[in-house]
Design a protein that fits this description.
Length: 145
């Protein structure tokens, strides 16, 4: 948590672009003046997601090369060193991941995926980090093509 209220850039998670500055997403609205001591740090190479909107793709990876903060409502996750982040990024775009998300959510009107249930999601992966990197790179290349 940003308990000391340090001046880090505040970001949100968009299901279209990933991490986005709050001032860009909300047009510099009242969010600039909010107390941010309860916000959470998202270090480079960490993921952040909205537990109430992950089912529509509101999960992002911090590839900004800087630490940012997000609302206390978000969940921040660092993957194991046994997993390649690009491989995981490609997986979270898949219908299989969304199916796993839906299987693990709680709630009736609005479904939530809190960390305890997020950690239950099985990620199909090979133990070879090199192979994961190749798969992630290939899938990213296909997306870009």
């Amino acid at each position: 948590k940003n308990s000391q209220g340090l001046d880090f850039p505040a970001y949100s998670v968009s299901n279209k672009v990933g991490l986005i500055a709050q001032t860009d997403q909300f047009d510099g609205s009242r969010l600039d003046d909010l107390e941010k001591s309860s916000y959470k740090f998202v270090e480079p190479n960490e993921f952040a997601y909205n537990p109430a909107r992950i089912n529509v793709g509101s999960i992002a990876f911090n590839n900004l090369d800087k630490t940012v903060i997000v609302s206390s409502l978000y969940v921040v996750v660092k993957m194991s060193d046994d997993l390649d982040n690009e491989f995981i990024l490609q997986y979270i775009k898949s219908p299989i991941f969304i199916k796993e998300v839906r299987r693990n959510t709680e709630g009736s009107v609005r479904e939530y995926l809190f960390y305890e249930n997020f950690s239950n999601i099985k990620v199909p992966y090979t133990k070879s980090i090199e192979e994961q990197k190749l798969i992630g790179k290939l899938l990213r290349h296909l997306d870009n093509t």
